[in-house]
Amino acid sequence: TEAHLRAVEATRGLNIFITETADIALRQAKAADERYAAGTALPMDGLPIAVKDLFCTEGVLTTAASHILDGFKPPYESSVTANLWRDGAVMLGKVNLDEFAMGSANITSYYGPVISPWSKGRRVQRDAAPAGSGVLAEVAEAFRQPQPVTEWEWERKLVPGGSSGGSAAAVAARVAMAATGTDTGGSIRQPASFVGIVGLKPTYGRCSRWGIVAFASSLDQAGPMTRTVRDAAIMLRSMAGFDPKDSTSADVPVPDYEKAITGDIRGLRVGIPREYRVDGMPAEIDRLWQQGVEWLKAAGAVPVEISLPHTKYALPAYYIVAPAEASSNLARYDGVRFGLRVEGKDLKEMYENTRGEGFGREVRRRILIGTYVLSAGYYDAYYLKAQKVRARIAEDFTKAWEQCDVILTPTAPNTAFGIGEKMDDPIAMYLNDVFTVPANLAGLPGMSVPAGLAGNGLPLGLQLVGRPFDEATLIRAAAVLE
Ligand code: GLN
């Protein structure tokens, strides 16, 4: 834990952490040491992790990367983080994200963008050792000795993906052993793909949403972001489980996911959906996808071409359903109950001032879209239509499971892009989620596994989607791909 805390310091220039909790980490680590000494170690004992700042942590600042939650210290702990602490995990701190998890690049955060550890740059200030050895070398040295806070000169700053950008960067930079993420339309899987780590979005209902700041309640799901498939298996087991405090939490047993890693996928039927060959997809993403099929085949799996005919409607449906639910969930930030208050001459003006100043551009855009599609004259044309599309997408998958056991696709249609790119074009940004949103709309588990580097030297991920509550099969197949 001490080494990881030094790594946190050494990488402050990446803007990963919103709140560092060294005191809590050292206290938890000490308790873990005592359990190890007594021979009573817990499943995640002493493992230093980062927590996406969307999980409420008792007495610890929780911001959702929004100005509107200024100073909010929840009097309660989210069920998922409580499960992790119960199993001995150590909290290094709360990490950056897109504001209210709305985004695909971690650039909508009130606290500024996260810089991907894959960015090209060099150190410019240094007490010892020659400058310019890169983020990983910096972290490696921090593990050996305390480091001065580093200044970087960046050639090109890359996004870590989003919305779980801080979580992705923390794991990729070796600052945390693992991190919690949340995924409403791809926010665990897409950043995992961008930085070359493993990200698992479980089945809707597998992990409790209680105490997680809500974005779109029928889509939100928490999951692990880790360096290896085995780590994801171990961490998911701790995070998951029935919770009576979340009415959508599923009362189904949580298997020992680590046992699923057998290396044996003989006979596993892998669906390749033809509709995912989208126009304009770079040739190398297609190549990587074929490569993934070959890898699975070599291990005994049987590829089958399948059809998910409503795929092209998934993205538009998502960008109606998600903002609709967000506009309702975000109604609670009124300047009275949480965080920021900006005074006005009367109550109404106080609401307006607080919400006008407290929410960033992207969040305001979503609230406008959401309230529009829910309003009396447009409800049937947009919201109801989107719900019908959602049902069709779920049906597509149900039919597909007659032919296959797991589905393989690319995680994202591109590698990480530069900070500042795509910022003025919300549609271009939304296109990042084209392969990930269907699993959210259908409530299915999805997992991104690192599958190599693109021609530009940046990581690419492959996505596995599985049957409801069958994360074990995803983990089994993912372990063959990694
Ligand atoms: N990028 C998607 C969005 O902006 C998904 C975000 C998420 O999964 N939280 O809504």
UniProtKB/TrEMBL annotation:
Which InterPro entries does the record match to this protein? Amidase (IPR000120), Amidase_CS (IPR020556), Amidase_dom (IPR023631), AS_sf (IPR036928), GatA (IPR004412)
The UniProt record lists the EC number as 6.3.5.7
SUPFAM superfamilies according to UniProt: Amidase signature (AS) enzymes (SSF75304)
Listed A to Z, the keywords are: ATP-binding, Ligase, Nucleotide-binding, Protein biosynthesis
Reaction(s) catalysed by this chain's protein: L-glutamyl-tRNA(Gln) + L-glutamine + ATP + H2O = L-glutaminyl-tRNA(Gln) + L-glutamate + ADP + phosphate + H(+)
Residue numbers annotated as active site: K52 (charge relay system), S163 (charge relay system), S187 (acyl-ester intermediate)
**Uppermost EC category:** ligase
Q: What top-level branch of life does the organism fall under?
A: Bacteria
Pfam families (UniProt xref): Amidase
What range(s) does the Amidase domain occupy? Answer: 1-122, 150-474
Family membership, please give it: Belongs to the amidase family. GatA subfamily.
The function of this protein is: Allows the formation of correctly charged Gln-tRNA(Gln) through the transamidation of misacylated Glu-tRNA(Gln) in organisms which lack glutaminyl-tRNA synthetase. The reaction takes place in the presence of glutamine and ATP through an activated gamma-phospho-Glu-tRNA(Gln).
How does this protein assemble? Heterotrimer of A, B and C subunits.
Q: What is this protein called?
A: Glutamyl-tRNA(Gln) amidotransferase subunit A
Q: Which organism is it from?
A: Rhodocista pekingensis
